[in-house]
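Interim report, section 4.2 (structural modelling).
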Amino acid sequence: MTNELISVIKVHDLLLATMPSDPDDATVAALQEETLTAMDQHEVRGLILDLSKVEILDSYFARTVAETAQMVGLMGGETVIAGMRPAVAITATELGVTLGRTRTALTVERALELAGQRNNATRRR
Amino acid sequence: MSVQTEVITAEQARKNTLNLPVETSLEMLRLLVENIKEYAITTLDSHGLVMTWTPAAERMKGYRPDEVIGRHFSIFYPKEDVSDGKCDRELEVAAREGRFEDEGWRVRKDGSRFWANTVITALRDAQGNSKGFGKVTRDLSERKQAEERNKQQSQDILEMATVPAVQVWEGILLVPLIGMLDSARTQQLMERLLQRLTETSSPVALLDITGVPTIDTQTAQHLIETIKAARYVGAEVILTGVRPAIAQTLVHLGVDLSHTTTRSSLTGGLRVALSLLNLQVAGTTRND
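Predicted structure of the assembly:
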């Protein structure tokens, strides 16, 4: 059962997941489910979570995002959250969301750059 | 001597006017009402139905005489005013006090709105019998627009002054804060900083507090939240201008800034910002 509102695609050695503007609880749950399944199926280094369309953030969504990033971490991947809007970021601080070591980027493009830097650094080693 | 001459002339003029036939003066009045461009002068009967209409009124409101004569004057008002009973109230006041003046939105035939000044005057004959109302409307849209523009401009300037955010380098935003930070201002700071960060797509912001005299627990908490929110949108905030007194206060208050990069000088902060963006400042060597 895939949710048609979200997309989780593999780009080279990364996963790119995109959320719709106002996801319901089922969609939020599907995000975690599909991302973890994709992490399991593909040999990827991490996840870029594109939140640029998201306009409304509730506590369930916020918690799920933080949890998913933690789970991806346990599976050996790194999460970069991209494109969070100012209003959503303010809500996130009000909700007291903690992202731990999860990195963030202004845009998906910049998130790919961040992931690329890490990639080069690993290769050089 | 000259005063006397003037008096005689004025007296003469008055006599001349008085000697004019009644028809001529009425004709002059009619021409005035019809030709005046800035004012729409109309008359209403005692129930508020339009009795006379002028070219200026047609230009202002878009109705031809045959479309408007005999209709209630509430067609010139926005729906919410009509349902609020504003039109009846205006006539009531005009009938009781002789005059009613108002400034507000009016509606043209095509539904568009304009800002107008309206004076409704009760018309009574020599015996004091009510003959209806005279209504003079003036279109003040241009003045209103100019006022709105000025208001917007001063608000923009005020906002700029409260939270200035300038781009000092591609990808680096500088926010120099001067004066006390109350909670209203820190809220504005958060909103404007996040907005500017995403607008300019800047991954780094320098928040300079050199000009902030003191910091209390609440302000510090607000600053930490702002830095956190900036991180969520994907930008790093470097707190600069941490003077010795501020450093002492922050530690004594037990404010935890361990997750934030802080520097005493703006230069130090700029160095960190450049290195975050993998940029280097190089001196030029002269070859001559």
